[in-house]
Design brief:
Layout: H1 2-5, E1 21-28, E2 35-42, E3 53-60, E4 69-75, E5 84-91, E6 103-110, E7 120-122, E8 125-133, H2 140-147, E9 170-179, H3 180-183, E10 189-199, E11 202-209, H4 221-229, H5 235-251, H6 255-265, E12 272-274, H7 292-300
Antiparallel strand pairs: 1-2, 2-9, 3-4, 3-10, 4-5, 5-6, 7-8, 8-9, 10-11, 10-12
């Protein structure tokens, strides 16, 4: 289906929604412009996260496509409706380790489930983890109408339904705010999220997220699993051929046109680039008001997509953790 083609609805890793990373946001703090906010969301069922997994926000601050700063969230087995988490901060070589290493900023903190956000502070870091309203807005049925069931451009006159399919969705959000100066951007950072699970004594990478709706280029579970296991430093060499082929199918791109579009966006490697000296608007970071589905559809169709006409969600906040309370 077309919603699978742009990554709005695909099978979660291992068939387990708890392991499914959803979106990544990077933007300056609305309450303190000297700070940068990093948010990773997961699990649209909004219940709990996997106790054998590590959910990580990775930051490359020197352009070598390797992780220099890593925030690792590790969750305990839920008990009587309560789930707790630990948060680790790793830097430099430790940041590339698959397991949770480094300084433990928090231990045994309860995942927040209610409308009031429990905000944590450790030194210059502000942290939140809990169930919140999903800020992504999208018209899934309209996407199907536009692209057709095969993922090729259908181009109907009026594809959009005007219905926000995500209006009442909750996610589990992992949010960190820190001084922009501490990130060490030279002159930008590259951010990506990863979910890693321990199986049979080994750490296996089973999901990742950088640019929005990228998984829509990956049209079957086998390809997605291989992509999730790849590190961004390998993306260009391994995946650009697949991306070029998909863009030819959806937008009639020739090879040179597809490579030029990939280079303009910085699609590969699949890391969200943010330069703090410039306004935050995708593809420079990502904010809650960015219509990333419209952006991705125009990318796929070579600018032929019509604007969906949806508006950003109004329940977002001006204070940390910035996502609205759960529905």
């Amino acid at each position: 289906m077309a919603d699978q083609y742009i990554g709005l609805s695909v099978n979660p890793p291992r068939g387990d929604q708890r392991l499914d990373l959803r979106d990544l946001y990077v933007f300056p703090s609305p309450s303190d412009p000297a700070n940068t906010v990093l948010i990773l969301t997961a699990n649209t069922n909004g219940e709990s996260l996997h106790p054998d997994a590590i959910y990580r926000i990775n930051v490359d601050n020197d352009g070598d496509l390797r992780t220099d700063i890593a925030f690792s969230f590790v969750f305990a087995e839920p008990k009587d409706g309560v789930q707790t988490f630990d948060l680790y901060l790793a830097v430099d070589r430790d940041a590339e380790e698959p397991q949770a290493v480094g300084s433990r900023l928090f231990s045994g903190v309860e995942l927040c489930r209610g409308p009031e956000a429990k905000v944590l502070r450790s030194g210059s870091f502000t942290v939140f983890c809990g169930i919140r309203s999903d800020p992504l807005f999208c018209d899934v049925e309209g996407v199907k109408n536009l692209l057709g069931i095969a993922g090729t451009q259908g181009n109907p006159e009026r594809p959009w339904t005007g219905v926000d399919s995500n209006a009442t969705t909750n996610v589990i959000a992992m949010a960190v705010e820190m001084p922009t100066s501490a990130i060490g951007a030279e002159p930008d950072i590259r951010v990506w999220g990863r979910c890693t699970i321990r199986e049979d004594g080994e750490w296996k990478h089973i999901d990742r997220v950088g640019h929005p709706a990228i998984r829509g280029f990956l049209t079957d579970d086998e390809t997605r699993a291989a992509y999730y296991a790849t590190n961004p430093i390998q993306d260009r060499a391994r995946w650009i051929g697949l991306f070029i082929a998909r863009m030819g199918e959806t937008g009639g791109y020739n090879r040179a046109e597809a490579i030029a579009a990939i280079d303009r966006e910085g699609t590969l490697p699949d890391m969200l680039t943010y330069r703090p000296s410039r306004p935050a608007k995708y593809p420079n970071g990502r904010t809650f008001t960015d219509d990333v589905i419209d952006y991705r559809l125009n990318f796929l169709t070579k600018g032929e997509s019509q604007a969906p006409g949806l508006t950003p969600h109004t329940d977002t906040l001006d204070e940390f953790p910035y996502l609205g309370p759960p529905h």
